Structure formats: structure tokens, C-alpha cells
Batch of 4 targets.
Target 1
Amino acid sequence: MLFTLHCALSDYEVFTNEADNVRMMSILRTLIISMANFIMKIVPKMLNLLVPRRFLACAFSSSCQPDLGAIRRELDKFEGGTVDLKMDEQSGVAVMTLNNPLRLNSMTGRMMVDMADCITRLENWPSGKGLILTGTGGNFCSGGDLTFVRKALHYGAEMAAFQHDALTRLLNLPLISVALLQGHTLGGGAELATACDYRVISPSAKVGFVQIKMGLTTGWGATTRLVHLLGRQKAISLLTSGKVMAAEEALNEGLVDHVLPYSLASSDELGECKKWLIANYCKHDADLIQATKKSVIYADLNRDIKVSLQHERDVFAKYWGGPAQKAALSANIKHK
Ligand SMILES: CCC(=O)SCCNC(=O)CCNC(=O)[C@H](O)C(C)(C)COP(=O)(O)OP(=O)(O)OC[C@H]1O[C@@H](n2cnc3c(N)ncnc32)[C@H](O)[C@@H]1OP(=O)(O)O
């Protein structure tokens, strides 16, 4: 580049006499191209020195996909607690339980991996209708396990990518899901609750997006889900206040859908929640429930009304004239 500059300047002295405008323009063009090439070469090198390589790769590559397998192997090293799944074939309702009771079911890396595996099993459960997400020992979840959090301070973006994938899959299960909020539901715990279709709360429970008080924003996708669920204003209010709400306030805010009666022992609340789920959403045929939920997800993700209606028609045509409709017609049902 310096060589080009030198040649260009010496040429300039010669040309002042000849006033050869055409050659002057050509020299100027060479100069500009050389400078541009120089900048294009040096800027990425400087950025490479200043910013970690993995961030650059993500920021500049349009094909950047997090390697979930590698993240999973890393998260699995942060032990403590489990997430357990029971699938009841008879009722079609599964119970997924956060199990880290000494730390109020706060989530370790291992639990995140467990939960992702449970979700994979639920994605492939054709006779399933519903899911209850609950915590053991009278608490839902007090957020990220702070022992894990302290060890994983270098691993936030990766953990968030893993949780975004798992919790989006949870939200989009073809089952009707409900989070049973008991005791404490804080931070990441409140985020988990927003990855279910509904939230049922114990009258003595408390729930809050306390991330802001921990110097954080949401890492497990709750901001995106809250805006869909409650709209911008309420999302801003819950997330920026970090307020911890009692059951009635959470109901008034629209965050929860049902408050359980006061009369129940904590151990009976799971049974009551199951009754609520079945009575409201899981009475009918599993195949129809799954088809309905899938259509709702499709409509939500494809806001183009024509595309969504076409899909709805296709699903409808599959059931029209089918055995379930014929059985219902024969039964001569009165919908009183
Ligand atoms: C991913 C980003 C996030 O989730 S940010 C939010 C992280 N969560 C928190 O900061 C919650 C911190 N914990 C608390 O505020 C209190 O423990 C709450 C939940 C209010 C319960 O208070 P209290 O009923 O008095 O119980 P306690 O404090 O004695 O707790 C019992 C034992 O559980 C533990 N615990 C609780 N939460 C966590 C957590 N998130 N991570 C790790 N451990 C947790 C407490 O340390 C306590 O343990 P220990 O009995 O002292 O050994």
C-alpha cells in the first residue's frame, strides 16, 4: 500500500505540467482501492484480537448455529438434582418433577440436560394429552442453582442457547401443559413456568422475575414468551420491577390462570392440579387434542392468515368423516 502511495505521488508531480485529468483520476482510483483493501484486511484482524473468536464466529456468520450437543456435554458436568418424568398411559397426563429439594429445586446444568431429555420423550408420546411441571417438596423452583451459576459464569450464552431450545420444545409440545407453582417460583423458575400453556398456583405460593435484582436479564426465553402472553406493558412491568407476587396478584396480572383452594395440603395440590387440567383440557381423544394443539402452534408461528387457514383446512379434512366424528354423530350428543 505504501508503495502504491509513493508511486502515485511521484506521478502527480509529473502530471501537474501535462494536466492529464484522465490519468489523475486513474491514480486517485488506485489510491482509494488500495486504502479500501488495507482497511478490509486490517479491521477483521484487529477485531479478532479484541473480541473472543467464538463470539466473532456467531456475530459474523449467518449460518451460526449453537452446537447443542457440545453444550449438553458441558452442562452435564454441573451435577446436582434430577428432573424426573412419569407418563401415565391411563389418564394421558405426565408429571415432570424438578428434584433438587435442598436447594428449593433450583436448576443445575445436569437438571437442564435431564429436562431436555424428558421433553424429547414427551415429543414422542402419541397417547399423551397433558403435562404437569412441578417441583418436589412444596417448591416449584428458586431459579438457577447459585452453586452452578457461580461455576458457570463463563458459559451464559451457551446455557441460554440450550435452554431456549429445550423450553421452546416444551412450549410447543403437542400436549396441554401446566406449571404447578408452589412455595417459591423465582428467576429462572418463573421463566420455566412461562414455557407451559397454563399456570396453576397454590394460594400461599410466591412468584417473581427477580433476575433484574441479580444483575441479569432473562436467560431462558421468558421475555419473548411474556410479551406473547401478557403484551409489552405487563412484560415490562414484571421484568423491570422484579416484584415477587403473591398468588392473587399473579392472578390479577394474568400470569397465572387458577388459584387452588386454601383447604388443601401441599401434597394434595398435585392431584387437584391434575383434576383441573383433565376437566378443562384433557377430556377428549389424545389424537384430537394433539392435532388441535399443533394447529394452534402452527397458527401462532405462521401469522400469515392464508397459510394458517390452509393448514387448518388440511387438518380439519383429515378428521371430517373419520371414526371419531361418526361415533359422535351416532351418540346424538346434547351439549347442555
Ligand atoms: C438463572 C438466573 C436466576 O434464576 S436469578 C434467581 C436466582 N435465585 C435466587 O437468587 C434465589 C435465592 N434464594 C432466596 O432468595 C431464598 O432462598 C428464598 C428462595 C426466598 C427462600 O428463602 P427461605 O425460605 O428462607 O429458604 P433458604 O434461603 O434458607 O433456602 C433453603 C436452602 O436452599 C438454598 N437455595 C435457595 N435458593 C437457591 C438457589 N437458587 N440456588 C442454590 N441454593 C438455593 C439456600 O441456600 C438454602 O440452603 P442452605 O440450607 O443454607 O444450605
Note: The longest helix spans residues 21-50.
Target 2
Amino acid sequence: MVHKRGADILHDPWFNKDTGFPLTERDRLGLRGLLPPRVISFEQQYTRFMESYQSLEKNTKGQPEGVVSLAKWRILNRLHDRNETLYYRVLIDNIKDFAPIIYTPTVGLVCQNYSGLFRRPRGMYFSAKDKGEMMSMIYNWPAQQVDMIVLTDGSRILGLGDLGVQGIGIPIGKLDMYVAAAGINPQRILPVMLDVGTNNQKLLEDQLYLGVRQPRLEGEEYLSIVDEFMEAVFTRWPKAIVQFEDFQMKWAFETLQRYRKRFCMFNDDVQGTAGVALAGLLGAVRAQGWQLADFVKQKIVVVGAGSAGLGVLNMSVQAAARMSGNSETATKPFFLLDKDGLVTKERKHIDPAAAPFAKNLSDIEGLGLREGASLIEVVKKVKPHVLLGLSGVGGIFHEEVLKAMRESDSPKPAIFAMSNPTMNAECTATDAFKHAGENIVFASGSPFENVDLGNGKVGHVNQANNMYLFPGIGLGTLLSGARIITDGMLQAASEWYNTHNVFDPCFSVLFM
Ligand SMILES: NC(=O)c1ccc[n+]([C@@H]2O[C@H](COP(=O)([O-])OP(=O)(O)OC[C@H]3O[C@@H](n4cnc5c(N)ncnc54)[C@H](O)[C@@H]3O)[C@@H](O)[C@H]2O)c1
Ligand SMILES: O=C(O)C[C@H](O)C(=O)O
Ligand SMILES: [Mg+2]
């Protein structure tokens, strides 16, 4: 039921059909005279949009990649702001081409340039200045029902760091994937920015910055803002699901523990990433010609001990414990590195979340390894079956590291460069195949083209991005009416992916 009339409808992207309103509707809704007389069918509108998109592609050929991607994002964003029905139709039909524009990697560039790109607000903004007001503010949202919320505080946007209020692009992109991949009703999604300040000096000094210009709230002050937001959301929409996204590690873990048994929520970077990575790890076991149970025999080096890396380790160790029936030895195959190198029990001031994965010196001395050993030392000595990067550091899998993977104990070593966006990937697909050899199983967080290996051979690139999991988690939770989201649900999703061939090159098409 549309309660609006006339120009209000034309300015509402939920209901606007532009020139597509038939004459009967134009009369009923008070639109007669507000549109050119000719009625254009939905199919014609669709063709017109795609033609303008294609001519933009033609006209920007040869220009720098960032310029072209932003131009594509702008044309899609304008349609999103004008006519959501048409926007989601073109998005769904062209998801392979448009996902890298409305989602990773272009969304990262959009967040970095948000002040300049801003035309219309999308979603809701709760700031440090709204304390005590959130319960009434939540009723300002025009939709009666909201099913899916993606929430960020902008403190760790992809591998780009603290982008403050500009991080709103991430919830918007994630929710577009919910609509396109899981069929969630676009009128029931809500992107949210929790603006508690920023520690990004450049933004604080930027006159055009649109967020609260103060350092980030910390401690109890911070938590009281998130608490108030969660109470407000679940008071108005008790059946909603809240996805936490791109929170810096300390708050990612703390909020997950704080809310996971009280509210229907999950942290995508910790849990969604873990589900996708585990599916990939299990897929790699099979790609190497082994049985699934051989997963526990693999040596896996994880580079990055943040919310994502530790999430992956937690879920992988749980899976290994289940498969081997032995939780004592389940951490043995995993080697964890952070910015200070190999993490061992000798580490001073170890993060409690990383502590379970710290190596005993007695277990690694035989390999000639020590506390803080470098990545190249670890790869050379461990000869891992899998090298998995979630460090946010572009190029850290450099030539020497990749060449060392040729000596892996596996004839088909797996290299997962999962950091985003493209510039932050641990290596490119081309470098991986060039230096580590043609037999590798390669996956990356941001999309890369398949690699031409010559002689008609192709190095296949798989995408290991949590976008393959979170839409299904949200939809499954919604349909089942689950009250909370458990690790078991994430594990089941990841095992489903494994049995449905994550490493099939057509996988992404099949999924969509
Ligand atoms: N592909 C996906 O689906 C996916 C999902 C989540 C996160 N990510 C990406 O993973 C990256 C990390 O995310 P996060 O939330 O864990 O961040 P984080 O800031 O919590 O953790 C980063 C970790 O990397 C470590 N690190 C930094 N420099 C290093 C170096 N030189 N060598 C080894 N380790 C180093 C840090 O010590 C820290 O432990 C980001 O780029 C993010 O975009 C990808
Ligand atoms: O946003 C993405 O593309 C994946 C992931 O959530 C990330 O933070 O990098
Ligand atoms: Mg994320």
C-alpha cells in the first residue's frame, strides 16, 4: 500500500517507476502531468540503463581503473537513489559485473571519497551526540518492518583503517548483496552507522568531513552507545538480525561476546569470514586429492591475528577437533603470525584471543623456529599445505615467500590472499601463479581475473569473501525464526559450501 501521492512518489526510490507508471496509476496517484506523456516499459527502461552503462564503459576505456570504477559506481548509485525496483533488477541480472562496483573493491574507494561523493543520505546515523535519544530516533525510520541491519562504527573499513562516518558505504554494499543474493526485501533492510568519532587525523582536519569531529569514544562510554542502539533496535523490531561489520578487533570480539546470547546478531568479519575460509580450506583438502578427514593433517600458516584471522582459527580448530575427536591436539597444525612474526607462548603482552594459538617453543624448536620468526622463515621451515593471509598488508606474500611455497609438503599448495581491497591483497593472482607455480589452489578476498598460463592453460582464481556466506546466514536465520546465531550454524553453512564445490570456477555464478 502506497500512502504517498504525486511528486512525493516520484522522489521515493522505493515506489518510483519513473516513466514506467501506466496511465491508470498516473491518474490514481496524482501523477498526471508530472511525467512526459509516453509510458516506457520496464524492459525498455532496463535496456536504456544498460546502454548508458555500456557507453560509459566505452567512453572511459584507457582511463585509470579507480576513475572508471567510481564512474560506474556513480551511475549505479544514481539509479539506486531514483528507482530501487530497476536498480535491483539490473544488479541481480548482472551481479558478476556489478558486485565489484557496489561491493568490494570499489566500495572501499567510495568510503575513502565519501564526503565528495555524498549526495543523499542512505540508512541511519547514530552518533555520540545522540545518547539518550536513540529509542525515539529509531522510529524515524520510515519502514514498518526491518529484517536485516548491517551496523558499523567505521573503525576498520576493509584494510583501509579508521574511516569514521565514511564507512557507511560498507553496510550499504553488504545489504545490496542481501537483496541480490538472498532475495531480502529491499524495503526491510537498514544500513547503520554508529558514529562514535574517529582517530583518523586527516578526517578530523577535513572541513568537509561529515561525521562527528572528535576522537573515538572508548571503554564504558563506547559500550553504552552500542547498548543503547541495540536496545532501541530490538524494541522496535524484535525479530530483526544485526550484522556487525568492520569493527576494530577489540570491539568486534567484545560486542560479539556481549550480545550473541541476548540478541539475534553475528559478527561477519569474525564468523562469516571463518565460515568461508573453512569451506575453502576443506575444499583445498579435496582439491589436493585427499579425504576430508585429512584436514587435520594439513599444516596451515595464518598471517594476521586480527578479528578475521582469529575467527578463522577458532572455527578451523573446532572443525579439526570434531574430525579427529581430540581437542587437545587440534591447534597443532596451525601457525599464527602477526605484525611481530610467529606467535609463541614466549610472546610478551599476548592478546588473550590469540593465546590459544600461540606455539609451545618445544613444538617448533625442532623446525629451527623461535618466537617472532619471520614469514619467510616460517614458510621455508614449516613447508605448509596452506598459506592464508588476513593481515591487511598488500604484497606481504612477496616473490621469495611465494617461491618458498614451491617446497610445500603438498604438490598442490593453497594460497589464500584474503585481505581487501585489491591493493591490500597479500599477493596478486598473477604473482601467485608466476612464483608459486601452476599447481596452486588460489583464492583472494577481492576479485582477480583468471591467469593465462600460456599453452592454453588457465590459473583459476576463486574468491574467498564472506559475501558467499552472510546472505545465506541472514536468510536462514530469518526463515527459521532462530532466536540467536550459533557457531554451529556457521559451521553447517561452511560444510554445505564444501559439499557444493567451492573451488568450481563456476561457483560464483551458481551461487548467484
Ligand atoms: N576475504 C574476506 O572475506 C575478509 C573478511 C574479513 C576481513 N578481511 C580482510 O582481512 C584484513 C584484516 O582484517 P581484520 O579485521 O582481521 O583486521 P585486524 O586489524 O583486526 O587484524 C590485522 C592483523 O594483521 C596483523 N598484521 C599487520 N601487519 C602484519 C605483517 N606485516 N605481518 C603479519 N601480520 C600483520 C596485525 O598484527 C593484526 O593481527 C582486512 O584487509 C580485511 O579487509 C577479508
Ligand atoms: O567486505 C568485504 O569484502 C569482506 C570483509 O568483510 C572485509 O572486511 O574485508
Ligand atoms: Mg568486513
Note: The radius of gyration is 24 Å.
Target 3
Amino acid sequence: MTPEQLNAEFGIAEHLVFCDGPGGLVQARLACPWGAAVVSTYAGQVLSYVPAGEAQDLLFVSEQAAYQDGKAIKGGMPVCWPWFGPDPQGLGRPQHGFVRNRQWQVTGSDRSAGGAVRLVLAVTDTDETRQLWPSAFALRIEVTLGQALQVELITENHSDAAVEIGQALHTYFKVGDVNRARVVGLEGVTYIDKLDGGVEKVQNGTVTVSGPLDRIYLEPGQELVLEDPVFERAIRIRSNGSRSAVVWNPWVEQAAAMGDFGDLEYLQMLCVETTNAGPDRVSIAPGGAYRLGVDIRAERT
Ligand SMILES: O=P(O)(O)OC[C@H]1O[C@H](O)[C@H](O)[C@@H](O)[C@@H]1O
């Protein structure tokens, strides 16, 4: 649908407006008294969240990001689904599943009496998705902009067998200087170190970044805090439906190797992801549904 058609059907004056974004991909711009957000209808991906009074976006998007059908947009909050990371069956299917690089449909919008604005996007199975993954499904993302940004990813299993999925709200947070940022809430938590052959280690103290990092934390607390002394803020990340969290920074070499990421941009971002990753997988009964969610807010420090 064109932005004009979407505005006629789902737009909310001054609060939800659809427009053409980079690469001609349609974006939704949400605004409420507590902040503003941008959501790409392509990939069902939040690209920006700026709470009122914050000078800096909470989300990082690469200057080199591709906005092109079939490609993933590097930054914001990509949706990894129905698997996280490499193809779990080794069949050569794309990393992080197949919904972060396709168009989603707008299926709903509303504004609550309290003033929060909500946008709903969805993907359902087609002949093409069934080639990649045989199950019938409806996947929905609900983005609610209010006093915080709340994102929920809802999987409905429409097939007549149970399905097992992995997934992530793969959030790229923007930081003033990753060398000075730290993640609080993972102290003493066991993690799988993907950069050290997948061995399990225990987090000693808060998470700081001084080199490449790619870790799946198992059974983390519900709330993590990303402290950023440069931007003088703390980002509170509250997840639900998740029993793992991924922390990732590509650092120098991986940054240089990625075509859609600037060589020095690793200094300005840190991924703290709300996941069902590694051994944290979710089984959904026939006709059942599962919700994975995250709530993000910033505090001045
Ligand atoms: O480059 P992408 O396919 O978007 O993946 C980016 C990163 O996503 C996650 O954080 C994984 O744990 C990393 O292993 C991966 O490098």
C-alpha cells in the first residue's frame, strides 16, 4: 500500500503518519507527548525512538545501512524469527530467519485514552515462506509509544503440529562511546561465549566492552540497564517472554568486514537483545501463541 492509502486507513492526525523513507520503503512516524518513534513497515523494524527531552536517539542505525528489498536494515530493532543466528538445521537458509528482509503489512493502529499510540504490523505464511519454513503462522509486531517504547512480537501457530522457534528483538542501542558504556544486571549470569567456541562462562561484574563481544546470557534478570556516562543517561531494558539475552559488539575487524556498517561505528553502538536464543527455544502448541516483548525507557543520569 502507498503512504496515502495507509494514512487514509491507519493514520492518526499528528500522532501516526506514513511516508516514504530511504529506498522508497514506507515508514510510520509515531508521536505522542512523551516522545517520537519511526517504524519501517519493511521488516517490521523500529528504527528510531527519541523520548521527549532526549537529544540523542536511543537506537543506532548505521549510516551505511541498506534500504533495499531482500536486505536487512542494519540498526534499530531487527526482528530475528523463527530462528536466531545461523540456520539451526544447516540448510543454508539466511542468518536470523526470514522476516527481517521482507515487507510486513499494516494491520492496525490506535491511540489510547491515556495518549499512547500503537501500530500493528504482521506477516503470514505464503508459498514462499513455506519453502523456507513449512509451518502456517501469523506473526505480529505491536509497537506502542507512550511513556516508554513497548514492542511485542506475537507468534501464532496456525499449523496442526507444535512448532519450535528461536527469535530476537535485536536492539541496536546508540551510545556516546562504547568504551565507557556498561550493562548492569548480568553480574554472575552464565553466558555462552560465541567468540570462544561456545564455551560457557560466568559474567564477572558488569559488562564492559573493550573488544569484540558476542554472548548469549542464560536466565538473565528481567531488567537490564545500559549506562552511558557520555550521553548522561541510563536505558532501562525490560524484557518478557525471554530466558536469554544477547550482547553483541562487532569491534574493529567485523565492523570493517560488514558492507553495511561503517568502520568506526562500533564505537557508537551496543546490541542488547531480547531473545529466545541458544538453548532458550520456545515450543508453541497447534493453535497456540507466544509473546516476546521489550519495554525501553531512558533516564537522565
Ligand atoms: O550481521 P547480522 O546477520 O545482522 O548479525 C549481527 C549479529 O547478530 C547477533 O548479535 C549475533 O549474536 C551475532 O553473531 C551477529 O554477528
Note: The mean pLDDT is 98.
Target 4
Amino acid sequence: MSFRTLDDAAPAGQRILLRVDLNVPMEHGRITDATRIERILPTVREIAKGGGKVILLAHFGRPKGRDAKDSLKPVAPELSRLLGQPVAFADDCIGEPAARQIAAMADGDVLLLENTRFHAGEEKNDPDFVKALAANGDIYVNDAFSAAHRAHASTEGLARVLPAYAGRAMQAELEALSKALEQPVRPIVAVVGGAKVSSKIDLLENLVAKVDALVIGGGMANTFLYAQGLAVGKSLCEKDLADTARRIMTKAQETNCAIVLPVDAEVADRFAADATHHAYGVDGIPADGMILDVGALSIDRIRSVIDDAATLVWNGPLGAFEIKPFDRGTVEAARHAAERTRAKKLLSVAGGGDTVAALNHAGVADDFSYVSTAGGAFLEWLEGKALPGVEALRKA
Ligand SMILES: Nc1ncnc2c1ncn2[C@@H]1O[C@H](COP(=O)(O)OP(=O)(O)O)[C@@H](O)[C@H]1O
Ligand SMILES: O=C(OP(=O)(O)O)[C@H](O)COP(=O)(O)O
């Protein structure tokens, strides 16, 4: 590894600023999938056991300023339960609330600081905000591979001003992804869905040069359907990205990458469990309808694309899987990929906070060859892009 790890750190008596990804799926204040928490436990335990004061830095959601609905406070009890030791919480990640709690910490204690994104300086990687964060620590450890594609103060800036190390989860992700996908066997199929359309659509342009087929589902598919001149009603759709979608489809033709879009969809009147829903062809989506899942014909197509694949990479659910029956496309595709993997006909790598939750929901996370905590970061890594959070950790 070309960066320092915990093997090189001496945490005893030190204040360790440990950047983790606690952007966990949550419904009504309840964590629905704890994978991201479970993955950081070895690092937290190792530092605490080594006598370091563990000060956790993390973001949650995409708040614009301080917003109670994006507080990390509900995560502290679950982290404490899984860790098996108390986890204190500070109402702010900088300033007096953080400093006071940190001053009271004994060696081996764990403290979670409030959402770094409550400060505009986080996403701007503002040097003054980096300085305010750094004032609370002696050593910086980054264990948030899934946020490493962000050049933010807590993912990149801090590594520039404090002695910086990779945590065990960061190390494990990079090692596992390299091992699994170093020399992928073709045909390679990528499945991309989910809701983060604007932050992920650009990377598809590079992805279509690397894979043999790109299955597009979830909210992402709607922008592509719209770009093809189809009406998508009230569906999640980023109309101003239609040109980008068309450019990606043209590039895919040039690189011989098959683009697989839904041919039918499960359409509801609203985003709710008790919504009225019907199946429609994608050329007949009603004006007041909302596409919440791929339809049965599309699922059959996706299954046969997976049948033809030797390697599968997947980020983003194919539908709003949190609400039944809109989990069907994701669950059926996941189970099919799991079955092919178990039969040793497929190498399958999936990642992303909600994607992992969806695989757990389908009961097949353990059957995939590798499950990453990262979605966007995983896809950018796959593109061959340098990830700012990883680059900043490299040894000089
Ligand atoms: N057709 C759709 N309309 C609205 N939301 C969708 C649709 N399909 C999937 N989603 C939502 O996408 C979210 C996950 O997207 P994203 O954050 O990009 O995935 P990940 O966390 O795995 O990277 C889920 O909450 C899911 O409900
Ligand atoms: O959930 C995350 O990424 P993912 O949805 O790509 O898996 C990370 O916490 C990064 O969050 P961001 O995409 O708001 O920067």
C-alpha cells in the first residue's frame, strides 16, 4: 500500500480525528441498514484499544446548513450498541461544543461529532474550516472510502494539515476492489440505478468505455427515457441532463457498449406504500404517474443480460425498494445475480449505502463476490479516476 496505515500510527494518548461514513439508510429516525457502521468497528476498536481518543467525523444527507432532520445524533446509540461501549455526542463538529467534550475524554473513549455538512466550509474544503476541525485532533485517520470521491474538508483537507493514515475499512475496500476487479473477465455488465442522478450521470460517460453493457434503472433511467423523447410524468427526472444522457448514449454506440433501458415500468400515483400502481410500457407513462420500479418485461431483460455476463458491477437500486411492491426489480435482479455467483458463473461486485441495504433486503448480500460500502466512490474508482480522499493519504 502506498499510504500509511494504522500499522504506522501511535494513537496512545492522542486525539484521533477518524473520518467515517455514517450516511446510513434511515426511516423515521431508525437505521434500516447498519453495514456502514459495522465496517468501521475494527478501526474504532483498534484505536481505542491502543489508547487513542476516538473522535468521529462524518456527514449525513445533503443539508444546506444546520437541519435537525440530518442530525447524526440518532446514530450514536446504534454505534454504541454495536461497538459495545459508550459513544458520546457533541452538537457541533467545531468550536466550543466539540472542544469541551474532547477535553473531557479519557484515553480509549469514543465521541461522535455532529454532521460536518452543517457547515458550508465542509463541501468547499475551506481552509479556515479545515483549521477549525484540525484544532480538535493530533492525528487524522480516514476510514470513509465511500466518501473518498469528495474533496471536502473532512475527507481531503484534514489529510493535508495533520499526520494522515488510512483506517482498516479504507484499506480493506481498496484491497478487495483491486483483487476482485484487477483483471475483470468479459463480458462486463454494469448496473446503475438509484436517485443521485446529477452526481453520478457524468461518470457513465467513462463507464461505457469500460463495460460491455450498461443496465440503467431506478431514477437514473427516467432521465434517459426523457432524453429519448418519452414522457415520464411526475417521475424523478433531471430534464436539464437530457443532453448529457444523449451524449452518453452516443458514446456507448462508439464504444460498443449496449445500453439497456427499461421497456416497461411500475407506475404509482405517489411515493407511498399504499399508492395505487399499474404497469405501463415506457411509451405510455401517464402524465400524473410516477415510475417507482422497472416492470416485469424489463426484469426479464435484465436477468438475461446478467446471464450473458462474466463480471457484474452494480450501484443503485432499480426502484424505490424501500416500499413494497417497488422492491421487485431490485430483489429479482439481486437474487438472479446471487444465484449465478453461487454457481460460479459470475463475479459480482455491488456497492452503495442503499444498494447494500437492498441486497440485505433481498437476503443475498453474502452471496455476492464482494459488497462495498461505496456507490459513487466505487464507480469513480472503477472509471480509473483518482479519488481525492485516497490521493491525500498517499505517502509523500
Ligand atoms: N424510480 C425511482 N424513483 C425515485 N427514487 C428511486 C427510484 N429508483 C430508486 N430510487 C431511490 O434511490 C435511492 C438510492 O439511490 P442512491 O443513493 O443513488 O444509491 P446508493 O446509496 O446505493 O448509492 C433509494 O432510496 C431508492 O428509493
Ligand atoms: O452515501 C454515499 O454515497 P453513495 O450514495 O454513492 O453510496 C456517501 O455517503 C457520499 O454521500 P454524497 O453522495 O452525498 O457525497
Note: The domain at 6-170 is CATH 3.40.50.1260 (Rossmann fold).
